[in-house]
Amino acid sequence: MKIGQQSVVTIEKIVYGGEGIGKLEEGLVIFVPFSAPKEKLRVVIREIKKNYVKGTIKEILEKGKGRVLPPCPSYGSCGGCAYQHLDYETELEIKQAQLEEIFSCFKKNHSFLIQNIVHGTFPYGYRNRISLHVRNGKVGFYEKASNRIVPIKSCLIASEKINVLLKKWLNQKRKCVGPKTMHVSLREPDIPSYGFYQVNRYLLEKMRELVDETIGREISQIIEGYSGAGFFTEYLKLRMEKIYAIEENHLSVKYAKALGLKNVFFIEGKVEDKLADCLSQIETAKAAYLFDPPKEGISKEVISLVNSHPLPKLIYVSCNPLTLKRDIQRLEKNYLLRTIKPVDLFPKTPEIECIALLTTKNGSQR
């Protein structure tokens, strides 16, 4: 086996991250991006590792399930999307199967359900913000696993308002001629210009409803970690006695406080530093944790605090199923996984949002 060698492979499935996986005649596992399930391909070996190789498609010998022509001219070079070559039904089936595989390790000790993935009707034009990179007159996104900028004229997964802003930036790009990379965030006017806020404009309200539903009516007090600019807080305050919302980003806290929410206490700082104080202010039997951490997941320090002070319910909103799995394993001392509600917040990309419900081992399964 050597770089540049060609081989024929049939793709068995698409794994989390968006690459197809198959086995070469030599028995080696191969990963192939932009492939489809059950597709027969002629591939070129591009990278050789100890236990697997990576390849690119040279020729499609037999089309796989759901293959379509990708609508974006930058698809395949831009690192943003992974599923434009598949119809949306196939993409959703793939993501559902990926979650079933990732969380299968819990089936032995947990009684839980992965619900059918919630999704919008149209997988394009949904993003209410994008992050651009600007260098040497180029405006665009990074190539996958690279800092090379792929110039773009528009973004099909961004909203019409974002593309109008993008066009203005493209008209100004000649001013950005230096070698230093600039990072530019374009957001719709009603989206906070700092801190974290959900990106899919079609599913904003649905996400809030699903989190509220997962918390359940018996819970009236919330400790919310990684609360961002108050996306969930603003909705939940309608029926909660108390919410302690912890957020490290100063501007996010400033924005959230400006919402003027009653019975909500916005606390600036790291969750690991502020959680213990919040726990002393709530009634344990009526309370739940709500965590919406970045893709890196919850820190070991926070996990340790939660294990030391378990509340009846823990709701974990995650954009990374792998770190969600890791953190559930770290919480198994006191908690059982009950449900995972997947939401396709990021169509055409590899990402999958999950709302997980964990309850204490002697608690309600609802």
Descriptive report:
The strands form three sheets. This protein has an eight-stranded mixed β-sheet with strand order 6-16-17-15-14-11-12-13, with helices on both faces. It contains eight helices and 17 strands. The model has no long low-confidence stretch (mean pLDDT 93). With 366 residues, the chain is of the alpha/beta class.
Topology of this protein?
Blueprint: E1 6-14, E2 19-23, E3 29-33, E4 40-48, E5 52-62, H1 88-102, E6 113-114, E7 129-135, E8 138-142, E9 149-151, H2 160-171, E10 182-187, H3 204-215, E11 221-225, H4 231-236, E12 242-247, H5 250-258, E13 264-268, H6 271-279, E14 287-291, H7 300-308, E15 313-318, H8 321-330, E16 335-343, E17 353-360
Parallel strand pairs: 3-5, 6-16, 11-12, 11-14, 12-13, 14-15
Antiparallel strand pairs: 1-2, 1-4, 2-3, 4-5, 7-8, 7-10, 8-9, 15-17, 16-17
The amount of helix comes to 10-25%
**What is the string of helix and strand elements?**
EEEEEHEEEEHEHEHEHEHEHEHEE
Largest sheet: 8 strands, mixed
Q: What share of the residues does DSSP label as strand, in percent?
A: 25-35%
Tell me the count of domains: 3
| First and last CA, distance | 53 Å
Number of strands: 17
CATH topology title of the largest domain: Rossmann fold
Structural class: alpha/beta
Which geometry do the CA atoms define?
Answer: globular
Rg of Cα set? 22 Å
Mean pLDDT: 93
| CATH architecture annotation of the largest domain | 3-Layer(aba) Sandwich
Give the strand order, joined by hyphens, for the main sheet: 6-16-17-15-14-11-12-13
Spans where pLDDT lies below 50 across 5 or more residues: none
CATH class of the largest domain: Alpha Beta
User: How many helices does DSSP assign?
Assistant: 8
